Every structure is written in structure tokens, then in C-alpha cells.
Amino acid sequence: QHSRNKCCGNSSHSNGKHPKFSGGHSTVARTFVLDVSPVPDAPEIGTIAAQSTTVGKALVIKLPITDVDTAIKDLVVTASSSNPGLVSGITIANDGVNITATVNLVANKTGSAEIALTVEDDFFTVDGSFILDVSGAVTTPVVKSTISGGKVTLGVTGTPGNKFVVESTSDFITWTVAGTLTVGADGTAEFVPVTGATSGLYFRLRSE
After folding, report:
1. With contact defined as beta carbons under 8 Å apart, do 208 and 165 qualify?
2. List of residues 6+ apart from 66 with CB closer than 8 A
3. Which residues lie below 8 Å from residue 129, measured CB to CB, with a gap of 6+?
4. What are the C-alpha distances in Å from 97 to residues 40, 67, 111?
5. Does 142 score more than 80 pLDDT?
6. Which residue in 6, 89, 115, 170 has the most C-beta neighbors within 10 A?
7. Strand partners, 166
8. Which tops the pLDDT comparison, 16 or 90?
């Protein structure tokens, strides 16, 4: 910034000559405050593999949720199911360290559902999901044998759809495959060994 000096009073002298002035330089400094605000990061939901459980057994799962600039305890997590006929409700527990979901089931129902998750902090809302498969409870098969007209019939009760290999032995050392069977939708199945000598034979079922 430049400035020029000005003389007071009449600018001319008695000798008629104009005075000479020397130019000068000055520096002016100013300050200001700069505030740099952090850029907020969104919460993240990690990949969740398909989950499975059996009829009547609620699924409890730790959710892989993180947030680099928001405390876990301050995150708002909600969940819902695509199949209300299978899932009766979902509860979320947040202890400030871990976030856990408990998926409760409708009694005596099997099937699949997509479990949708939503996580919110002060700035972002993030969505995620996983698949839940509910299968029939596995029960230990019960085998009963009957003999009628010289024919042996093995009656089996168990979980529908389960498949077994039927084996026979006479000495409990060597077992021979006699056939296979699949438990029907009503939970029962029958097996009749191939016609031949069955006297003195013992039978067992082995999961296929």
C-alpha cells in the first residue's frame, strides 16, 4: 500500500518553486481464524452370511456394525422381516460394545425370510440384510420291526425328508447295505428287506 505526504498550508513558496516530497511505503497486517470441521463417516454393516435355525429355536446373532466417529451406544439399530408368517419379532440389544439381534419365530413354522437392518447415526442411515432359513427340528429316528407271513417290515418314524441307509448284520462285525429309505411327509417310512433269509439278522439305520 502506498501513501503520499501532504504539506500544510500554501503549496507554493516565496521563491515560486514547488517543494519536493519523498514517497514512502507502509505494510498493513490482518489475521483471521480458520475452522476445519471433520467430515463425518457413515456407519458400516459387515457382510452377514445366510443363517439357519430349527423350528421354535430363536436365532441370536452378533451384528458386525461399526462406526469410526460415533460411539456404538449412540447408534440406532432397527430390524424387520420379509416374512411375518415365520418371524414373530426381532429385538435389538446394544450394550455399548456389541449389538445383538434376537430373531423370534412363529411356532411350528418353517421357511425362509430376509432380515433387513437399518443403522443410523447423527448424519447417515445405512441398510443391510441377511437370509434366515428355518428347518424342521431333527429328531432321532425310531425303528420298529414286525414279522407277518415270514416277511420282515421295518417301520421308521422321524423327521420328514431325512434319508437313511439300512444295514444288516449277523455278527455285529460286518455290516451289509440292505437298502435306503426316506422319511415321508407324515414322519413315517417302511422298509422291507429283499426277499431271502432274514432269520438271525439285525438291522440298523445310518444317516445318508
Report:
1. yes
2. 43, 44, 46
3. 48, 114, 115, 116, 117
4. 20, 12, 32
5. yes
6. 115
7. 179, 205
8. 90
pLDDT at 146 over 90: no
Cβ contact 106:88 at 8 Å: yes
Give 64-67 contacts, CB < 8 A, sequence gap 24+: 65/99, 65/119, 67/41, 67/42, 67/43, 67/119, 67/121
Rounded (5°) CA angle 54-52-58: 55
| Residue of 90, 157, 87, 85 lying closest to 118 (CA atoms) | 90
Q: CA 200, CA 152: separation in Å to the nearest integer?
A: 12
* 3-state secondary structure (DSSP) of residue 1: coil
Percentage of residues in the chain having pLDDT higher than 90: 45
Which residues, including other chains, have CB under 8 Å from residue 148's CB and lie 6 or more apart?
Answer: none
How close are the terminal C-alpha atoms of the chain, in Å?
Answer: 95
Report the distance separating Cα 208 and Cα 199, nearest Å.
26
Closest CA to 141 of 179, 93, 189, 180: 189
Whether 3 has a pLDDT exceeding 50, the answer reads no
- The CA-atom distances, in angstroms, between 156 and each of 30, 47, 55, 147 are 94, 41, 21, 15
Helix (H, G, I), strand (E, B) or coil at 83: coil
Cα(173)–Cα(74) distance, integer angstroms: 64
Q: How far is CA 154 from the centre of its chain?
A: 44
How many whole angstroms separate alpha carbon 128 and alpha carbon 151? 59
